[in-house]
Amino acid sequence: MSDEKRTEIGEIGEFGLIDRIAEKFSPTNEKTVKGIGDDTAVYDLGDKYLLITTDMLLEGVHFDLSYMPLPHLGYKAVAVNISDIAAMNGKPTQITVNLGLSNRFSVEAVEALYEGIKAACDEYDVDLVGGDTTSSSSGLIISVTALGEVDRDKVVYRNGAMESDILCVTGDLGGAFVGLQVLEREKAEYMANPDMQPKLDKYDYVVGRQLKPKARMDIIHEFKDLGIQPTSMIDVSDGLASEAFHLCKQSGLGVAIYEDKLPIEKQAYETAAEFSIDPNSCALNGGEDYELLFTIGQDDFEKIKNHSDIHTIGYMQSKSKGRTFVTRSQNVVELQAQGWKHF
Ligand code: ADP
Ligand code: MG
Known about the structure:
Layout: H1 9-23, E1 32-34, E2 41-44, E3 48-58, H2 70-86, E4 91-101, H3 107-124, E5 127-135, E6 141-151, E7 166-170, H4 175-192, H5 204-211, H6 217-226, E8 232-235, H7 240-251, E9 254-258, H8 266-274, H9 279-285, E10 292-296, H10 301-304, E11 310-317, E12 323-326, E13 332-334
Parallel strand pairs: 4-5, 9-12
Antiparallel strand pairs: 1-2, 2-3, 3-6, 4-6, 7-10, 7-11, 8-10, 9-11, 12-13
The structure holds adenosine-5'-diphosphate (ADP) and magnesium ion.
């Protein structure tokens, strides 16, 4: 081992690492329609496709129990997986839940966690059908796997965008990141002065975005009603810029995103300003909004143009035109993606 080259994970990053793993695992089972590289894997069931996705949340990395109530954590662990099923234009059906628990947790604490899991199962109409429970020496670990289904002619991948398709995003962006800043500040103040009561009322919206993200299944149902078939789609877990890069990379295209079109909610905007952080940067690079970023053909524009919760923020362009950000003053700059760095 000592003579072998050592590459730090930080040098290639999370996505570089995944690419490196993926290179060695080309699917061989003819039923595997999609392996590594999209929001879910896809398995051929005939008329329908089965969707499979998994996400793990670690205490101290993805959540802090000093401000994350256990029911919210349970809900969020499910919602982030449902969001990946939504990103394939699918409908979730079942989940399994794996837990790593330290002896710090009581039966009641585990029940509180499952209260949130149950709420998410009810809301998204999925069955909890199994899991695994182990002890953990490093805090709470919760890993959820979700299954879903989609008609084979309705599945949406990251790689289907075409030049001049319109780039759309649901809801608003940056709120979850700003909410995290508020929670971190309140925690620091509480540690310094435990008699202090947290002042969160003013920040209810952004804090809610961080603690209780919803998967946008409502939009998937609306696509059906409106007769919209996105050409590509991804959910916004790492930040708009990073997700747009995935659509570009997999579709072999560039993109133009307009600053004045970024949907940033008033409280997120004002709170970002209070923290002296650029609201645009929160929208572009903050994580965990769990909105849907998708492209549609120009012909579908009429169907969404009056939708109050779908925003057109740019368009796909040729790869040679690059990935660009058009500022309010019409300057065209290169779009940067910092995303969430776990390494
Ligand atoms: P998402 O943010 O949509 O959950 P990720 O960025 O986590 O997607 O993962 C991108 C792709 O890489 C997915 O297809 C995922 O299944 C795959 N992936 C992530 N980590 C691993 C791993 N350790 N081994 C194999 N595949 C992985
Ligand atoms: Mg995803």
